[in-house]
Amino acid sequence: MQAHGALDARHRPETCHANDLKRPRGARPTERFQTALRSYRVLRDLTPEQIQNFMDSYLIYSLDWADEGKMVATLGKDYENVVGQKLADYYCVLNHLCALGELEKMYIPPAMDLDQNLTVNQILYERQICEELQLPANNARVLELGCGRGRVAAHISSLTSARITGLNIDADQIASAQAFNTQQCLHNTFVRADFNSLPLPFESASFDAFYQIQAFSLAKDHDALCRELFRLLKPGARLSLLDWVSLEAYNPDNAHHTQLMTRIKPLIGAVGTPTPASLAASLEKAGFVMLDSSNVSINGLQAPLIERADGFFRNLKRFVLGGVKFGLLPGHFRQLFERLTKDCDAFVEADRQGLCTTSWRWLAVKPDTMGKEMDGEEGKEGWGWGCWWFLGLGLVLVMVSG
């Protein structure tokens, strides 16, 4: 397996130069201000129904795909569709709350460089995705599930010239992604769909690569989804996943551990709780060959970045509460920001104890031909044993017939 950071410079996209890697840049201040202003206006104009639907959506994070009985008891037999609707209710508000700060892409990245801010660490991780996918030089087609507002797709497309197809369940985010794509003169496409409703609306073997960032906990059946990705990817295509997992140190019989998990899942928007091994097994059962499975944060810790994000939004909450108190901001802002900033301390504690992380990365490949993508030496040294077997059989037949 390839260690983090060891990818060969030959595989770096031509548009992603070494000098650029030393000086990553986030959005310009004017761009960030305009984005935040647009999101503020959306949040200001939320209806009472939208606010209530957002608050009610948190119910699904007290459940888990693994406990279907509780899902049915809480949400009814049609629980899959109910979860899908609540996810849409959740993200149509959350994406605007996150856009007020450094979380417009809606993920805490792996800790890649602790001398840099959260946005730059996102950029660094996305550049790593470009490196490890080893995309074709021209006309690469890449699929992203859970594409959010299309900002990650825009960045990866700008680095590689690939055309990204993004899929998301929330119409509001799809509209934002399409508008940003047009503004940036990119050629990405965005589709509103639920990746729990398979098959996905794409042809077999139509994509050169796949990536996703912290979306797979929303998938009910990892085995089925990985089989679907295997169908959609071309032979030789690579797949990169970054997601939330519980780690070996987590003990479900430890009351404090389970309490931490119960508090964390609503904060990060996780329904399922995979492990590194469970998702790797789903990939391998689908036919993928694992190349790497590891925590890509420095020392396996995201806590420094989590604390920075928490500090920003707590300071923003103080400003918001003051604005509400003096009638400068709508009253429902209090409710939204109280919910947004709840329980981040649990996330930090669990991360530092090694109970869970949202920076576990799986890298896999769809074999090009039988055994071609394996790292063994058989295919590199000429004939394999099968060729020698057939040659020997042929010689025996010649001798017998003679």
What does this structure look like?
Residues 1-28 are annotated as: Disordered. Keywords: Transferase. This is Methyltransferase type 11 domain-containing protein. Residues 7-28 have a biased composition (Basic and acidic residues). The chain is globular, with a radius of gyration of 23 Å. The protein has a single domain (9-370), classed as Rossmann fold (3-Layer(aba) Sandwich). By secondary structure, the chain is an alpha/beta fold. Strands 3-2-1-4-5-7-6 form a seven-stranded mixed β-sheet, with helices on both faces. Helix 2 packs across helix 5 (79-99), helix 3 packs across helix 5 (79-99) and helix 12 packs antiparallel against helix 14 (344-352). It is built from 15 helices and seven strands. The longest helix has 23 residues, at 303-325. The protein starts with 17 loop residues before the first helix and ends with a helix.
